[in-house]
């Protein structure tokens, strides 16, 4: 039975929440004292805390810090009737799971508590998985604690147990589909057998066919010796077919037979060979659309899609960015013998807002490039690529504009361009005047004057 602690200085709120939680089968604890809350978290192995942001003279944010010091793994939901966006953001930065305002409905409490406890259970499963799996997950770039990534961890843990189940991994380029495939293999009974990978989009049809199925001597002009194919080579282990959506239709037919009959025949061969492999396929394409376009076989899709796993893009799990940054910083600082150890707050804000079209691979490359180029201990905004600043134009890029025959109003046009640039800079910095002045390289007083001139607003 999960233990949930209610910390609120209003008795009727505590009583109401105790009733709601007891109805769901949880064991509620409650207190109006911050000191008592810290003691209970330390002694009772509390699973979840519902914490009021206003506890008389004490701030709930201060109590949140103390609770996280006592138990870094405890989940905390902030509850307040006086909250602001700023306090919500600050609570989340300090590690709160979520934020809900009074007055609240029972249904909202039921839902948010259930989601929080599911997240807590997933995190515990992943920690157990990492211990039991000999660190295979912790040693690669599958880093983070977002609910989306934790769901991927749980799925791969389950399917790894079933050594013959075919897996289809989907997701954008750079999300880590290969890492998921390797983790499934490393955690499966096949872990001591080969893991063989091939990119189906990197070779033309005839070469890919030979790579996968092998050939006998004399099968074609240049076949001077027998060649063992990758599927046969991975016998007993796992074959990972990356970018399966790029495979030629004729080759898809042969792969379908492999999945149905568990047999292969080398090119030029006269007999079938029994094989025992797990097939894991991955793609960044929409295979259902490819089926409609007649470039992917529907029967093969359903053979591959026995156990689907979707790897979310980095922009949908931004809470993992800080974890990945720390991992890559340590890795490349050690590799390049640098002292880079942290990211400044302004640089982190930019990294958190960026949309990361190249996903984890792009983040990895950015950190690697910075560690190569710079010798400081802290990553600052100036070190980040231009696209992370908001696709700003290069300073040395020539400005091009066609002047119409009727001429232009120069001052009016300059003002419009200046207003647009300031507005875009404010958007990038979240309206922060100090950051905007640094981004535009103008004094803060000058920027304030221009904000008033163009009727724009910013926060100090």
From TrEMBL:
<dbReference type="GO" id="GO:0006355">
    <property type="term" value="P:regulation of DNA-templated transcription"/>
</dbReference>
<dbReference type="GO" id="GO:0005524">
    <property type="term" value="F:ATP binding"/>
</dbReference>
<keyword id="KW-0547">Nucleotide-binding</keyword>
<dbReference type="Pfam" id="PF25601">
    <property type="entry name" value="AAA_lid_14"/>
</dbReference>
<dbReference type="GO" id="GO:0000160">
    <property type="term" value="P:phosphorelay signal transduction system"/>
</dbReference>
<dbReference type="InterPro" id="IPR025944">
    <property type="entry name" value="Sigma_54_int_dom_CS"/>
</dbReference>
<feature type="domain" description="Response regulatory">
    <location>
        <begin position="3"/>
        <end position="117"/>
    </location>
</feature>
<dbReference type="Pfam" id="PF02954">
    <property type="entry name" value="HTH_8"/>
</dbReference>
<feature type="domain" description="Sigma-54 factor interaction">
    <location>
        <begin position="142"/>
        <end position="372"/>
    </location>
</feature>
<dbReference type="InterPro" id="IPR001789">
    <property type="entry name" value="Sig_transdc_resp-reg_receiver"/>
</dbReference>
<keyword id="KW-0597">Phosphoprotein</keyword>
<dbReference type="Pfam" id="PF00158">
    <property type="entry name" value="Sigma54_activat"/>
</dbReference>
<keyword id="KW-0238">DNA-binding</keyword>
<dbReference type="InterPro" id="IPR025662">
    <property type="entry name" value="Sigma_54_int_dom_ATP-bd_1"/>
</dbReference>
<feature type="modified residue" description="4-aspartylphosphate">
    <location>
        <position position="52"/>
    </location>
</feature>
<dbReference type="InterPro" id="IPR009057">
    <property type="entry name" value="Homeodomain-like_sf"/>
</dbReference>
<dbReference type="InterPro" id="IPR003593">
    <property type="entry name" value="AAA+_ATPase"/>
</dbReference>
<protein>
    <submittedName>
        <fullName>Fis family transcriptional regulator</fullName>
    </submittedName>
</protein>
<dbReference type="InterPro" id="IPR027417">
    <property type="entry name" value="P-loop_NTPase"/>
</dbReference>
<dbReference type="InterPro" id="IPR002078">
    <property type="entry name" value="Sigma_54_int"/>
</dbReference>
<dbReference type="InterPro" id="IPR058031">
    <property type="entry name" value="AAA_lid_NorR"/>
</dbReference>
<dbReference type="GO" id="GO:0043565">
    <property type="term" value="F:sequence-specific DNA binding"/>
</dbReference>
<dbReference type="InterPro" id="IPR002197">
    <property type="entry name" value="HTH_Fis"/>
</dbReference>
<keyword id="KW-0067">ATP-binding</keyword>
<dbReference type="InterPro" id="IPR011006">
    <property type="entry name" value="CheY-like_superfamily"/>
</dbReference>
<dbReference type="Pfam" id="PF00072">
    <property type="entry name" value="Response_reg"/>
</dbReference>
<dbReference type="InterPro" id="IPR025943">
    <property type="entry name" value="Sigma_54_int_dom_ATP-bd_2"/>
</dbReference>
<keyword id="KW-0804">Transcription</keyword>
<keyword id="KW-0805">Transcription regulation</keyword>
